[in-house]
Specification:
The complex is a heterodimer of chains A (191) and B (738). Chain A is 74% helix and 0% strand. Chain A is built from ten helices and no strands. A six-stranded antiparallel β-sheet of chain B has the order 1-2-3-4-6-5. Chain B has a three-stranded antiparallel β-sheet with strand order 7-9-10. Chain B has a two-stranded antiparallel ribbon with strand order 8-11. In chain B, helix 16 packs across helix 18, helix 25 packs antiparallel against helix 26 and helix 29 runs antiparallel to helix 30. The chains are: A mainly alpha (191), B alpha+beta (738).
Chain lengths: 191, 738
């Protein structure tokens, strides 16, 4: 399947929401490919305690359960929803790991370098996750930029391409969102 | 890297726009209105974030580049070496790649000291949580299992560079679906294969192992014709502590077609042994039909199909497939685990019953399951007709009774009442129409109508003069009476028909120009007549029928051209004629002739099969009745054929009410009578068998309908009264013996 432009995605989305099953199918294919690519870059970084296909299917199931296609107000929302779902799965597996560390859950400690990094970080990953959820409410594109860059390790260029915006927009979004998140995570005076 | 510049150059303008949502957010929270101030604040925050290395990307972006190179080949250890001579894994020498799974590759191999003995080596690729966990579990699982139809673990180990592997017996054979095809196995042989598999899985379940991924690709048949379950990669131990956290979706992307609904369901249900029952059933399905029960080209539709749709019946792929084998297969594929076989032993036993020609225990799903399925498939209608609707009405009526306290709000209360009544009326109509032919819905309709009557009575006590309210109440009683009739609650049915009749009568006196109200009175009377007749109540002499006749004549006089009224008149008179016949056969014959002519005329105006066709057919069958009692066989035969043609066409093309399926019953009885008269006992017996078969299908389909049961009983009575039918059986048995 040749990758559709953002315009044709918007058209597909509109027809899919009006009940065109063929459009829905194409859109689902497009989402599946994007999930696959995104999961690919997550895996490269050793960020996931789950394997490639597990992570892919968990993300897909989350998207399907959320009735993403039906709810998407615009085409750019789809990519944001994919990145959001990916982040939620990653955080879930970290939560599981954290509970296991505290002895509250049963499970196998994953040999996942990302978990180590989270533990060494001075910031609480779960708080960051919550703050990102709030950011999603205010400005979903910025939340997607942070998620794609920080959680999925996409470069500026890759992020811009996925979201269908210019590189300078991504850069501005990133800086602004980062400043805003910092304020959310660190109460004034503590920094 | 770009991010470094972004993080590093602090005095760069942030590219802020006053319309930016985050600027708005900050302004709203800090109360700051000055754009400059907000910009300063954000810059300060960015500096602090840098100083704290908050969301620092530079390090990860470096590793990304490294990562890109180091993991270019997914399995460098093996693939690099395979180009230069044999690859060795501990004491094992790998020969060729057999397959690639999500986490592993499987190779054919041999032990260095036993080169003639081939084994399968499964090499785990990743060190992620899932892979590790799965290796552990698969190892434990296989070491536990020792069964000729399950693959065995021989050895396991680790390479010096930390990769784990598992050595298993190498099963040489064909995939089960290909095996069945290439050996042209018949249905019994297929059942034998699956019974053997079910036994093996029963053993695995006893060892507290659930396979979770049974599908044609995981089941091989050896050259000796024995099936072997090959891959336990997704298996789970029921008593294991670890398995709990494992998600079952690992195989989702590839093989949705064989996963049980609960493995991908919106609620993460507890994965039980029933999953394997589903998997084996799905494999059987694909062996029988060539397709997986859930087709998976579109993931979203596939998931929806898996949750909500029953698989296409295997017999629509292969009409020769025995019904019992289909029953077994579909029972395994039930959406709810508790509707499947209770254990693998039971499945194996049922398959063996089929194999030896005995009756299987698998049955079409229970009534309430069918009803639930209707609810699933008609969510919108269901939500309108069920709890939601009653909740709305309840809410409205509570408000209503609060408001009635003050005289000033009477008007509003009235309006509210109207809307409550409209909602209730619409909901009832929708529910009755859409549920009328839904198997298993009678109990629900019964309760619902009772509830509705409760509301309507409350309302009408409050507003006794309201016309629409009274009419809805009467209609609801009428509907309830019909449901009672279907369930065989004669007393309650009669009571409700009588209430409906009384109410309609009152209303028709209030609005004398509305003929349809008197038509409703007619229907209530006729309904009651039927109940008195079928309930065989003592001392009843068709008074209701004659009353009904009087009413319908009145109605017809107002609108002589109305098709519905004419049709109703025909029906009513036909019954009057049937009664008259027993007193005065000549008069009866004349009457029925006239009615039949009229019915045929009415039918002639309507080219497509519809209710009027049915009535023409029924009047013809009344004619048969009379000519038989006059011993005029030619005329009897003539009208019999006419009636049969009309009724069968109507039933096949237009009938919606399941009870109308009984119309052929009398016809078939005549067919038997005619056959017996000509001493053709074999034919008589054949027709009798046909009738019994059709009735038992109807009873299975609509177990809550009392009438089918009743007719089945009277058919048995008929047989007891006509012992010559058994002759037909003996004769045909003799013939087959010859």
């Amino acid at each position: 399947m040749n990758s559709p432009t953002s315009n044709s995605i918007a058209a597909l989305l509109a027809s899919a929401q009006q009940g065109d099953l063929h459009a829905r199918e194409q859109l689902a294919q497009w989402m599946l490919e994007n999930v696959n690519r995104l999961v690919g870059s997550v895996m490269r970084q050793g960020r996931s305690a789950l394997g490639h296909s597990s992570l892919t299917s968990e993300v897909l199931v989350k998207l399907v359960r959320g009735e993403t296609i039906d709810r998407a107000p615009s085409a750019s929302y789809l990519m944001a929803a994919i990145s959001q779902a990916t982040r939620e799965i990653l955080i879930d597996s970290y939560r599981r790991y954290a509970r296991w560390k505290e002895g509250f859950a049963e499970g196998v400690p994953a040999d996942c370098p990302w978990f180590k990094k989270i533990e060494e970080s001075p910031f609480d990953m779960l708080e960051l996750h919550d703050a990102l959820a709030r950011l999603e409410q205010i400005d979903s594109r910025k939340a997607a930029v942070v998620t794609l860059r920080y959680f999925c390790d996409l470069s500026l260029n890759e992020t811009a391409e996925r979201l269908g915006v210019s590189k300078s927009t991504v850069e501005a979004d990133w800086r602004l969102a980062r400043a805003w998140l910092f304020e959310q995570l660190v109460p004034p005076g503590n920094a | 890297m770009s991010s470094k510049t972004a993080n590093g150059v602090l005095d760069l303008d942030l590219g802020l726009k006053t319309t930016d949502p985050l600027v708005h957010d900050l302004a709203a929270r800090t109360g700051e209105r000055d754009y400059e101030q907000i910009s300063q604040r954000l810059k300060a925050l960015e500096q602090q974030a840098d100083a704290n290395q908050f969301l620092n990307l530079s390090e990860t972006e470096e590793t990304q580049e490294l990562g890109d190179h180091s993991t270019a080949g997914s399995d460098p250890e093996v693939s690099n070496r395979s180009s230069s001579g044999p690859v060795e894994l501990g004491p094992y020498v790998l020969i060729r790649l057999l397959g690639i799974g999500g986490f592993s590759r499987v190779y054919e191999a041999y032990h260095r000291h036993r080169p003639s003995e081939r084994v399968a080596v499964k090499l785990f690729q990743h060190r992620w949580l899932d892979a590790l966990e799965r290796l552990e579990i698969e190892k434990l699982v296989l070491q536990k299992l020792n069964h000729p139809n399950l693959v065995k673990a021989i050895d396991s180990g680790e390479t010096p560079d930390g990769m784990s592997y598992l050595v298993m017996t190498l099963v040489e054979g064909e995939r089960i679906d290909q095996y069945v095809k290439s050996h042209k196995l018949d249905y019994r042989a297929v059942a034998r294969l699956f019974a053997e598999l079910a036994d093996a899985m029963a053993y695995a379940h006893e060892q507290e192992v659930i396979h979770r991924d049974l599908k044609p690709g995981n089941i091989l048949v050896t050259n000796q014709g024995h099936p072997v379950v090959a891959d336990f990669g997704l298996a789970k131990r029921t008593n294991g502590i670890r398995g709990q956290s494992l998600t079952a979706t690992g195989a989702l992307v590839g093989t949705l077609g064989y996963l049980a609904p609960e493995q991908v369901g919106p609620r993460k249900a507890e994965i039980s042994r029933a999953v394997d029952n589903y998997g084996l059933g799905a494999t059987l399905y694909s062996v029988l039909t060539g397709e997986a029960p859930t087709e998976n080209e579109n993931l979203l539709q596939g998931l929806n199909q898996l949750q909500n749709q029953r698989p296409t019946e295997p017999r629509s792929f292969d009409p020769n497939l025995p019904a019992d084998l289909q029953l077994i297969c579909l029972k395994c594929l039930e959406k709810s685990p508790r509707d499947r076989y209770d254990s693998m032993h039971e499945l194996a036993a049922d398959l063996r019953r089929f194999q030896s020609g005995q009756r299987v225990i698998a049955r079409p799903p229970a009534v309430w399951t069918q009803f639930n399925r209707w609810v699933q498939a008609n969510k919108v209608v269901a939500s309108l007709t069920m709890g939601l609707l009653l909740a709305v009405v309840l809410g409205l009526s509570v408000t209503l009774f609060l408001w009635r306290q003050s005289e000033a709000r009477r008007g509003e209360a009235n309006r509210l009442l109207q809307s409550a009544n409209t909602i209730l009326a619409k909901g009832n109509k929708l529910a009755e129409n859409s549920l009328a032919s839904t198997p298993g819905s009678l109990q629900y309709r019964y309760e619902r109508l009772h509830q509705s009557i409760g509301f309507l009575r409350l309302f009408s006590e409050e507003f006794p003069g309201d016309f629409d309210l009274q009419r809805e109440l009467a209609t609801t009683h009428f509907r309830l009476a019909k449901v009672c009739a279907h369930r065989g609650f004669y007393d309650e049915g009669i009571e409700n028909f009588e209430i409906a009749e009384g109410l309609f009568l009152q209303l028709s006196q209030l609005q004398t120009d509305d003929v349809s109200l008197r038509f409703d009175v007619f229907h209530s009377l006729l309904g009651n007549h039927h109940l008195y007749e079928t309930g065989r109540l003592q001392g009843y002499h068709s008074e209701k029928l004659y009353e009904a006749q009087a009413v319908i004549e009145e109605v017809l006089a107002c609108e002589p051209e109305n098709i519905d009224y004419r049709d109703a008149y025909i029906c009513c008179l036909a019954q009057v004629a049937a009664r008259t016949r027993s007193d005065d056969i000549e008069k009866g014959l004349e009457l029925i002739h006239r009615i039949h002519e009229e019915a045929m005329q009415l039918k002639a105006d309507l080219p497509e099969p519809c209710l009027q066709w049915r009535h023409a057919g029924l009047t013809a069958s009344y004619m048969v009745n009379i000519y038989v009692s006059l011993e005029d066989w030619d005329n009897a035969q003539h009208y019999f054929l006419k009636s049969e043609g009309l009724i069968n066409e109507y039933l096949a093309k237009a009938s919606k009410d399941p009870l109308e399926q009984l119309d052929w019953y009398c016809l078939k009885l005549w067919e038997i009578e005619f056959a017996l008269m000509q001493k053709d006992f074999t034919k008589g017996r054949r027709v009798y068998d046909q009738m019994r078969e059709r009735l038992s299908t109807l009873i299975r389909q609509y177990p809550d309908y009392h009438d089918f049961q009743r007719y089945a009983e009277s058919l048995e009575q008929y047989r007891a009264d006509h012992p010559e039918l058994n002759l037909g059986n003996a004769e045909s048995a003799d013939r087959t013996a010859d």
